[in-house]
Design brief:
- The complex is a heterodimer of chains A (309) and B (131).
- Chain A is mainly α.
- Chain A has one domain (2-108, 132-300).
- Helices cover 66% and strands 6% of the residues of chain A.
- In chain A, the strands form 3 sheets. Chain A has a two-stranded antiparallel ribbon with strand order 2-5.
- In chain A, helix 1 (2-28) packs antiparallel against helix 2 (36-64), helix 3 (83-104) runs antiparallel to helix 6 (218-259) and helix 4 (124-152) packs antiparallel against helix 5.
- Chain B has 2 domains: 14-77, Orthogonal Bundle (Arc Repressor Mutant, subunit A); 92-125, no CATH class.
- Chain B is mainly alpha-helical and 131 residues long.
- In chain B, helix 1 (14-27) packs across helix 3 (51-63) and helix 2 crosses helix 3.
- A two-stranded antiparallel sheet of chain B has the order 2-3.
- Helices cover 50% and strands 10% of the residues of chain B.
- Strand 1 (114-118) of chain A pairs antiparallel with strand 1 of chain B.
Chain lengths: 309, 131
């Protein structure tokens, strides 16, 4: 039984990892003659990307194997159901960034008697471009969602209270629907989001500060750097996007339950506004999730060199 | 994009190689007033040399008015840097074209860059009737 679990777990990590490596390898093979040095640089970037993806997949498998609810009081971790799973995507993002940053340190340093460098500043903002703006927008959306959820949740932070309904005979109907990402989930998620953004900025800084590669034409070196940055941001965006999407879908489901219909004393209560809000949240969540996946797909391909060699 | 190239085996100190190349790029207009140079730490890392070497080059460039250094904005090409040392604004582009043609002719005749520079320095030291 234990052996079967090990085999299944290993396959769960190896198979997606191998698929990712094959996709990256295929994306690196273009019909353009970039020169031997540029091709070597592309291969090195592919290996770094593959290592970080394998680490991310392994972390995902580890997170998914965590218990939904911690049963022993001495175990560290969130005590609410699914708390550890909720922050799992940020753990994946942190590991992804850490492996990526470590890989960036394996690029060869300047050597030889004659060395050259561009007289141009390289900043995280320039390197990140549109992807960085999208990531910050997604992170902002997630943060706002968590704050709103925290403010509207019940006192234990796991459910959303139903609208108070009063029947004709004076009975008061109350209730709550969950799971709902109140502060019990929101605080760890906000901390995880902040740490992820810091790790992303730090990893992009390492990419920006990498010395230009000797014997690689400047435009090709820039293209490798932009490829690295795009893949870092796409991976983190996927983690943030998946978290946001799941959060919005869970909120939508809880609000939809809170909307009713609820019947008591021969009366039926229904709150269409909550239904509309639930649908809206679900749509936004699906859009964010799909956009994050699209971001990963478009980051697979190596950036093309621009400008004269 | 302008590149800096240093030769660690050259008898010319590395900081002087950096200084002269930046000054040359400003003189031919490849670097314009306001263009920000990389931080000394970043340029040193890119070239694999000591930070102090780049800092000395930047200090000498600032002393000669080619660049300015500010704590928040870093090092940037100074306003009017290309025309420094002259009493009037030069018609720079035609002069730069003349220099390009001179260099092309000198290289075509077999002179290497060091020999061309020696020739220019020799001319600069000749008695000069007008200034």
């Amino acid at each position: 039984m234990a052996l079967n679990a090990v085999i299944v777990g290993t396959l769960f990590v190896l198979v997606p990892g191998l698929v990712a490596v094959l996709v990256l390898w295929a994306a690196g093979r273009r019909g353009v003659d970039d020169g031997a040095a540029a091709r070597t640089a592309l291969r090195h970037e592919t290996w770094i990307a593959a290592a970080s993806i394998l680490a991310a997949v392994a972390t995902t498998a580890a997170v998914l194997s965590l218990p939904v609810t911690w049963s022993a009081s001495w175990l560290p971790g969130p005590k609410v159901a699914g708390g550890a799973l909720a922050v799992g995507p940020f753990a994946v993002a942190l590991v992804y960034c850490a492996v990526r940053a470590t890989g960036e340190l394996t690029w060869p340093r300047p050597r030889g008697a004659v060395r050259s460098a561009p007289l141009k500043r390289r900043t995280v903002r320039d390197l990140g471009g549109r992807r960085l703006r999208w990531l910050l927008a997604a992170a902002g959306l997630l943060a706002v969602t968590l704050v709103v959820a925290g403010l509207t949740a019940t006192t234990d932070g796991t459910a959303v209270p139903h609208p108070v309904r009063v029947t004709a005979d004076g009975s008061v109907i109350t209730g709550a629907s969950g799971p709902y990402p109140g502060w019990a989930y929101g605080v760890p998620l906000l901390v995880g989001l902040a740490l992820t953004l810091l790790a992303t900025a730090g990893t992009l800084r390492v990419v920006a500060r990498r010395a230009p590669l000797a014997e690689v034409p400047r435009p090709h070196d820039d293209a490798v750097r932009r490829t690295s940055a795009a893949r870092i941001l796409a991976g983190v965006q996927l983690c943030v996007g998946v978290t946001t999407a799941l959060l919005l879908l869970i909120m939508g489901a809880a609000l939809s339950n809170a909307a009713g219909p609820v019947s008591a004393s021969g009366e039926t209560f229904h709150t269409p506004g909550l239904v509309a809000l639930a649908v809206g949240l679900a749509v936004v969540g699906i859009v964010v999730g799909i956009a994050s996946v699209v971001g990963v797909v478009t980051a697979v391909v190596h950036r093309r060199p621009t400008g004269p060699a | 994009m302008s590149d800096i190239t240093v030769d660690l085996t050259s008898p010319t100190p590395v900081y002087e190689q950096i200084r002269s190349q930046v000054a040359g790029l400003v003189a031919v207009g490849a670097l314009a007033p306001g263009d920000r140079l990389p931080a000394s730490r970043d340029l040193a890392r890119d070239l694999g040399i000591a930070v102090g070497t780049v800092q000395r080059a930047y200090r000498e460039l600032e002393a000669s008015g080619v660049v300015t250094s500010r704590r928040r904005t870093g090092t940037a090409v100074a306003d009017g840097a290309a025309s420094r040392g002259q009493g009037r604004e030069p018609a720079r582009e035609p002069l730069v074209e003349d220099v390009r043609r001179l260099v092309a002719r000198a290289r075509a005749s077999g002179l290497d860059d060091d020999a061309i520079l020696d020739m220019v320095r020799g001319v600069l030291r000749e008695p000069y009737a007008e200034r």
